[in-house]
Amino acid sequence: MCKAIEDLKNDAKAEGKAEYIIELLKENGTISDKVKSKILKQTDLQVLNEWFKLAIHTKSVDEFMRLSHLEQYAQ
C-alpha cells in the first residue's frame, strides 16, 4: 500500500480515537479546550490507545489528567 494512503488511514484512526476519548471524558466532567486540542492533535496511536484505556477506567477527568500526564494543559 502507498505510504500516503497508509498515513491517511492512520490519521483517520487517530482522529476517531481522539474523539472517542473526549466523549468518554465528557461523561466524567468538563474538559478544557486546551486538553481537547492536545488530545485531538495526538497522532501516535499507541499513546491514544493508552489514553483510551485510561478514559474508560478513570472515574474523573482529574484522574485521567493526572495519569495521562496532561494536567499541565488543564487550565
Which value, in Å, is the CA radius of gyration? 13 Å
User: How far is it from the N-terminal to the C-terminal residue, by CA?
Assistant: 42 Å
Decide which structural class fits the backbone.
mainly alpha
* Percent of sequence in beta strands: under 5%
Helix count equals 4
Give the integer mean of the pLDDT values.
Answer: 92
The helix fraction, in percent, is over 70%
Major beta-sheet overview: none
One letter per element, helices H and strands E, the order comes to HHHH
Q: What does the overall shape look like?
A: elongated
How many beta-strand runs? 0
What would you call the quaternary organization? single chain
Description:
- The longest helix has 24 residues, at 3-26.
- By secondary structure, the chain is an all-alpha fold.
- The chain has helices at 3-26, 33-41, 45-57, 61-68.
Topology diagram in text:
Elements lengths: L2 H24 L6 H9 L3 H13 L3 H8 L7
Helix pairs in contact: 1-2, 1-3, 3-4
Keyword list:
75 residues; 4 helices; elongated
Quick summary of this structure?
The chain is an all-alpha fold and 75 residues long. Helices cover 72% and strands 0% of the residues.
